Amino acid sequence: MLNRYPLWKYLLILIVCVVGVIYALPNLYPQDPAVQISTTNGSLDSQQLDRVTQALADDDIQVKSAAMTGTNTALIRLDDAEQQLPAREVVDKALDDKYTVALNLADSTPSWLTSLSAAPMKLGLDLRGGVHFLLEVDMDAAVKQRLEATASAIRADLRDQRIRYRSTDVDDNALHLEFANSEDRDAARDQISQTFREFQLEDREEGRRAFLDMTLTEQSIKDIQDYAVQQNLTTIRNRVNELGVSEPLVQRQGPSRIVVELPGVQDTAEAKRIVGATANLEFRLEARPDTPEAETETFPFRNDPQRSATLSRDVIITGDRVSSASQGFDQNGRPQVNINLDGTGGSLMNQATRTNIGRNMAVLYIDHSTDTRTVTKDGRQVQERIPTTSRSIISLATVQSALSNRFRITGLDSPTEASELALLLRSGSLAAPIYFVQERTIGPSLGAQNIERGIFSVLVGGLLVVAFMLIRYKAFGVIANAALAVNLVLLIAAMSMLGATLTLPGIAGIVLTLGMAVDANVLIYERIREELRRKTPAQQAIHAGYGRAFTSIVDANLTTLLVAVVLFSIGTGPIKGFAVTLSLGILTSMFTGIMVSRALVNLSIGGKPVKKLWI
Question: In this predicted model, what pLDDT tens digit does every residue of 320-329 receive, in sequence order?
Answer without folding.
Answer: 777 777 877 7
